[in-house]
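User: Predict the structure for this protein chain, please.
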Amino acid sequence: MYDGGGVDPRVEALRAAVARLHRELAGYRADLPDRGIAEETIVALAAELTLGVPETEQLSRSLLVIVGALGSVSALGAALTDVRRAVELFGGAPFAED
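Assistant: Here is the predicted structure, written as structure tokens:
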């Protein structure tokens, strides 16, 4: 567990990954049936990260919702992978390695 004072670097990494995904999703103009669900989950996750270190189970659930909504969109693949890797920094990785 991080105890170096200041902001946990895992939280910083996840904030950056979530912000990137949010920007890329906003720039992706194609119709997506689950865009609203993904956007709500991304916004909620970003808000949760302002409170400090989130719970691992909640991170995994958020990741599963986001991947379920956007996982088939190849244009967002790199940003989704960054979010997944940042979530894995907290332990309890829900997916196998690439």
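Residues 9-88 form one domain.
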